[in-house]
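Schema walkthrough. Field components (list of strings):
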Amino acid sequence: MTSLHQRIFEDIEQKIMSGTWPPGQRIPAEHELEVTYGCSRMTVSKALSALAARGMIVRRRRAGSFVASPQIDRTVMDISDIGTEAKVAGHAYSHRILSRRIERLSAVDAAVIEETAGAEVLRVECLHIVDGRPNALEKRMILLDAVPQARDETFETSPPGSWLLDQVPWSEAKHIIRAVAADAATAKLLTIERHAACLLLTRQTWQNGRTVTFVEITHPGDRYQFAGVFHPSK
Amino acid sequence: MTSLHQRIFEDIEQKIMSGTWPPGQRIPAEHELEVTYGCSRMTVSKALSALAARGMIVRRRRAGSFVASPQIDRTVMDISDIGTEAKVAGHAYSHRILSRRIERLSAVDAAVIEETAGAEVLRVECLHIVDGRPNALEKRMILLDAVPQARDETFETSPPGSWLLDQVPWSEAKHIIRAVAADAATAKLLTIERHAACLLLTRQTWQNGRTVTFVEITHPGDRYQFAGVFHPSK
DNA sequence: TAGTGGTCTAGACCACGGG
DNA sequence: CCGTGGTCTAGACCACTAT
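Field assembly_structure (string):
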């Protein structure tokens, strides 16, 4: 038996995650939810406080509660440029789409991401350039079942990562970070020496248990790092 | 004006962080705190629930609430062995202390960790061995002002990281992950080739704004990875 | 069995800030 | 101004579990 405040929490979480209540949407006031669920205000308040604590909603006196904007990537770690860590702002950023094609998921890839083979995926390769130097090579798969609107997107104006964050709320992400030696093709694209140490970030993102995207990002090891500040628990 | 449940939260947090209430210590029952603070049970409950949500205490019916054990490193990411990821248990672990000495913080090191030069630090180098292969080289500084009991510790029975977690609760940690090429000395200790790609994890830990320890851990890139599952916010 | 936390109620007063 | 969320009360019943 799940508690009532938990059920209210999950109901609202579901409406936000599914996009039924988009960012900025006003949530029913506490008093309205009291009536809807036939419970006291404390119970509603507990659920809404929990949602606010997780950053899913923003609560403002007199105005009401609103669905928060999609969270940016900093959840895990900030990605900072070793050479220019100081000047947080002022980066010249651009990107280049190297390739883009739609195919069906091979058995091998399906096993890796634990989805069913044959599903339609959009594969995109993208080079990220900061201050004139390539700083990341991105190889991405987007599951078209989960993100059908990606089918006709060229990613010319917005790179795949940012574009996806705007389109799809995510509920879970798994990250793996490894150190690898650059292969010939990667070395050439990143203008580094072959076998140079690189950071390889693999990220798989889900929405309600369904894979949205799977991406491998290779950074030159001498120019980039991952950094994050954490507090216990959470 | 800070709310009462917040004040209760902070009072207890302080007692835990300062070590006044060590791990395992029983916390006064809700009813006792009602009397102490002269408030209702709901107010106490709100504070204790928040502490439990942050993992600082564990609550058990009939038994009471207890200060949680210091959290293990998984806060950031699990460190898993690529080759033996499957067998979560069953690793043969051992460690070897390579060096141990007390010195005063040089100006350069002081600048790096943003502490005052001249402070006494214990420097320890430690090799971690899993299933017969070296898997990490740890170079650590422990601030003796913050952890005086480290002065006479040999770390023979427990490696510095685990020992510290048992001794000192931490309130903040900063991690940086880089990819680097192994230098000659590191390569020899880790039995890998020189210039092989390695993951370099740098971690600085604070307690109430004071640096407790600063550590650099080098992992062979082909054998290790960092992985973590995350949810939005946090 | 008895003490503890988990949940919930039906009120209340207040502070904030948008209209 | 006045609706909203923030906080708090003084109870209540129940589930769990150590003893």
